[in-house]
UniProtKB/TrEMBL annotation:
SUPFAM superfamilies: Ribosomal protein L30p/L7e. One of its GO terms (cellular component) is large ribosomal subunit. It comes from the Bacteria. HAMAP family: Ribosomal_uL30_B. It comes from Apilactobacillus ozensis DSM 23829 = JCM 17196. This is Large ribosomal subunit protein uL30.
Length: 60
């Protein structure tokens, strides 16, 4: 299964509470924090909601 490398590029402060919860649930804390996540529909859906806050790269 493919993986996604996700980096938080903008702060989640002053965002909608739902967006802050998604950032926390994905394991991202501070700006520039990084995490590897599985590439599945649930992860893609969560990333779509916070696409303006993160940078996503596919790991081969």
């Amino acid at each position: 299964m493919a993986k996604l490398h996700v980096t938080l590029t903008h702060s989640a402060a002053h965002r909608l509470p739902k967006q802050r919860k998604i950032v926390k649930a994905l394991g991202l804390g501070r700006v520039n924090s990084q995490v590897e996540l599985p590439d599945n529909e649930a992860t893609r859906g969560a990333l779509f909601k916070i696409a303006h806050l993160v940078k996503v790269e596919q790991v081969k």
